Amino acid sequence: MLEGAKSYTATDIMKRWIFSLLIIPIAYYFLSNQGHYTLIDNFDLIIHEPGHLIFSFFGETILMLGGTLMQLILPSLLILYGLRAHKLIWTQLSMCFLAQNLINISVYAGDAVAMKLRLLGPPGAKHDWHYLLMKYNMLDMTDDVAMFFLVMAGITFLIAILAPLYIKD
């Protein structure tokens, strides 16, 4: 063996990959059940709504995008922490959280035309994605935008599963 090279036992390898194996059914569940409200969607909402307030100082477009931005920023910060601290499971869990948020966003964006989702706020509250897609004359691309976020969720889950390949202890 090379000097300074670390040898891994079968137990070490299994420990590194066990959480990845657990992610597979989780990813399958969330990707195949998008649009079915789960408990974690409540947490997404807790992240989403303050984003509007935080980004309200930057104009109406960023205000409307603020909730989605927070759903992307917070899990991304958790991922960065995990990567910098070399915490494999933390990083994988944070990636799953980001992927689930991307699915949540895809459902919301996909509702931009139908606007059937119940919105939080006063009567007449604007639908973020209807506003954004209408403003940029992209309402006819609602399904494409929703699919983009769904595909990104799938890619994020895949990266989380493969994380033991690139996150070293």
Give your account of this protein's structure:
The chain is mainly alpha-helical and 169 residues long. 69% of the residues lie in helices and 0% in strands. α1 (10-32) runs parallel beside α4, α1 runs antiparallel to α6 and α4 (88-110) runs antiparallel to α6 (142-162). The longest helix has 25 residues, at 60-84. The radius of gyration is 19 Å and the shape is elongated. The two termini are 19 Å apart. The mean pLDDT is 93.
State which percent range the strand residues make up: under 5%
Mean pLDDT equals 93
Q: Which structural category fits the helices and strands?
A: mainly alpha
> What is the 3D shape?
elongated
Total strands: 0
H/E topology pattern? HHHHHH
Distance between the termini: 19 Å
| Helix fraction by DSSP (H/I, runs of at least 4) | 55-70%
Ranges where pLDDT stays below 50 over 5 or more residues in a row are none
Count of helical stretches: 6
Largest sheet: none
What's the gyration radius in Å?
Answer: 19 Å
What's a concise summary of this model?
69% of the residues lie in helices and 0% in strands.
Which properties best describe this structure?
169 residues; mainly alpha; 6 helices
SSE layout and pairing:
Blueprint: H1 10-32, H2 39-54, H3 60-84, H4 88-110, H5 128-135, H6 142-162
Helix pairs in contact: 1-4, 1-6, 2-3, 3-4, 3-5, 4-6
